[in-house]
Specification:
Layout (H helix, E strand, L loop, with lengths): L2 H4 L2 E4 L2 H4 L8 E6 L7 E3 L2 E3 L4 H15 L3 E11 L4 H9 L3 E9 L14 E8 L13 E4 L15 E3 L2 E6 L4 E2 L21 H11 L5 E4 L6 H8 L3 E6 L2 H13 L9 E2 L2 E3 L3 H10 L26
Helix pairs in contact: 3-4, 5-6
Bound molecules: S-adenosylmethionine (SAM).
């Protein structure tokens, strides 16, 4: 298959087989959210927890296939949980320039009587070389100002006064605490057991790709990566072994034609947890009749979702 045949598709196949038919060097951004090293059932298949070394061998086989698909300028993000993170790092450090480990505070997690509740996941950020895209201005976080320092002239120092409150645009760190998992009342939620939030994937796509670039997800699940890529004007290819999940992905891609909004991302910025609710309350006084749907993500606040936001 060449580039034109493959971009925009959801491929229903085992990635290890599908990779053989994908073209050389067509991927600008690779997002890998594999089954974690846990006992987990994905519809028809069950993934069994194994020794971290065996998990690293399995993941290494996927990367043996993936490397050929990358460009010298590609970026790679790989999701994992704390116990397998060292094994995942060992796979990545031998192949790529490992640039950071992002920790996503999921908030939700099952409490444990004799342990700390596990409420975080890791996302490793790597590049193929030192020549890579990183659009920091596209992923700034909009935070409410707690200490509104002013210059001697009385002007705000590094924040903006608006009728909706005082805000500062801050550089994003590798600790992501502004994103919750998709819960039942959010429009993006599906039956997939480990669906990633669109907001998380949007940060990665905006930071590490340009409009028109191609994003590959070899473990597509419910289609989050392809859907967000589509909403943000990127090309996409997703591979998923389970047919029902491929159908979920295709349905979401169809829905993205009418609704390009991404929850928690509006007006071109990522909003801190809860601030978008507050902003809309101040702006519209809770008038839910003033809804807007058919916008490209980042252009105007999405009022249809304010009720549902954390
Ligand atoms: C962690 S989930 C991905 C979730 C996805 N990021 C989302 O937001 O929905 C991993 C997915 O990989 C799929 N999978 C497992 N082995 C696979 C393989 N060899 N090739 C392609 N997909 C596979 C599973 O069916 C599962 O849906």
């Amino acid at each position: 298959m060449d580039h034109a045949e493959v971009v925009g598709r959801t491929i229903h196949q085992d990635f290890l087989e599908a990779a053989n038919d994908l073209p050389d060097g067509f991927v600008d951004l690779l997002f890998v959210d594999p089954p974690y090293n846990l006992n987990k059932t994905f519809n028809s298949a069950t993934f069994k927890k194994t020794h971290p070394d065996a998990y690293a061998d399995w993941l290494g086989k996927a990367f043996d296939k993936l490397e050929r698909l990358l460009k010298a300028t590609s970026s790679i993000y790989v999701c994992t949980e704390w116990a397998s993170s060292p094994a995942v790092y060992s796979v990545l450090r031998d192949r790529f320039v490992v640039r950071n480990r992002i920790t996503w505070e999921r908030e939700k997690g099952r409490g444990a009587a004799r342990n700390w509740k596990n409420a975080s996941e890791d996302v490793w950020f790597c590049t193929v070389s030192d020549d890579y895209t990183f659009n920091v201005d596209a992923v700034k976080l909009k935070r409410r100002v707690l200490a509104p320092y002013t210059k001697q002239t009385g002007e705000p120092k590094d924040w903006t006064k608006t009728s909706e409150g005082d805000y500062r645009l801050t550089h994003p760190s590798n600790l992501w605490s502004d994103i919750t998992i998709p819960f039942w009342s959010m429009p993006e939620n599906t039956d997939h057991p480990t669906q990633k939030p669109e907001k998380l994937v949007a940060k990665i796509i905006l930071a590490s790709s340009r409009p028109g670039d191609v994003v590959l997800d070899p473990f597509l699940g419910s289609g989050t990566t392809s859907v967000v890529a589509k909403k943000l004007g990127r090309g996409f290819v997703g591979v998923e072994i389970d047919e029902a999940y491929c159908c979920l992905a295709e349905k979401r891609l169809l829905m993205a034609e009418d609704d390009c909004t991404i929850q928690g991302y509006a007006d071109g910025v990522f909003w801190e947890r809860n601030t978008i609710n507050e902003q809309n309350r101040l702006r519209y006084g809770g008038d839910e009749s003033r809804k807007g749907n058919h916008r490209r993500a980042g252009q105007g606040a999405d009022l249809s979702q304010t009720k549902l936001f954390e």
